[in-house]
Fold this sequence. Notes:
- The chain is α+β, with helices and mostly antiparallel strands.
- Helix content is 36%, strand content 28%.
- The strands form 4 sheets. It has a 5-stranded antiparallel beta sheet. Strands 1, 2, 3 and 4 form a 4-stranded mixed beta sheet that branches.
Amino acid sequence: MNQEFFTALDLLEKTKGIPKEYMIEKVEAALVSAFKKEYGTSNVRVSIDPNKKDVKVYEQKNIVEIVEDPSTEISLEDAKKLSRRHVLGGVVETEVKTKGFGRLSAQSAKQVIIQGIREAERSSMIREYEKKREEVITAIVTKTADNTGDIVIDTGTSEAVLPFAEQIPGEEFAAGDRIKVFVTEVRREGQTGPMVTLSRTHPGLVKRLFETEIPEIEEGVVIIQSVAREAGSRTKIAVYSRDEDVDPVGACIGERGRRIADIVDELRGEKIDVIEYSENTADYIAAALSPAEVISVEMEGERSAKVTVSQDQLSLAIGKEGQNARLAARLTGCKIDIKGY
Length: 341
């Protein structure tokens, strides 16, 4: 094993953060396994000395009274001839000199180093993705799988997959497009890297977009209370202000709707209703049913309400296929029964 091997260990420790001692331990174990397989030796120990930059192999034999297996045992009498310090039950080590060991050790060390690099890169990717869990990242579309519709994207850390089920219905991307995705989960059991779940349908995507696009939210003046979303169609988001001089809804919409327009563009035209949150549940429900105008809200328990609207507002309050009422219920966490008057 030559100088290049030990230089490689130093480089791995410096660039990949893999401790030299860890790699030496792995290489020693690999060499023991390779040596036993190559030479049929059952008891062997490999020692790598990074200071002297050399590798030695020792055959080990147990010291016994009566030798039954000469390949693994040595008599106490013969052991004493090698050193008077040997005692019954001890181990005699004899250095093995083998011409082919250099080739064998180089191959084994190379395999272990390659594996070590892969493990280090995988651990590094996992750490990077774990930092981004429940965050929005910008990625570049690489390709779309024809058979599944899944999109392969380059996140800058590695390639990942945006499943078809996690894409906003109807949206299409071409190679080279830049898109924003929400990291919902990171698991370690992947064979070639971390298993990362990405989404463009998760309500967290909308929440994070508001947090990054609206300065008042980023600064903590305006707070997002809740988000209810049906991706590709409509989202309701409830906000409130910690500063009575700041209008939370106006801050999110922006002058002439410019702020919210950027978020809508990113979501490919998805409609967004910004609702002002209220600690008064009845007022909160009335606001959540926007754009419908509510006549009254009668609470029938802590999380159940009967809402009355004028007859001409009934279809608007319920929404197409019940969507407006459904999103309002999710946003407020209440069961809502709507009646026309």
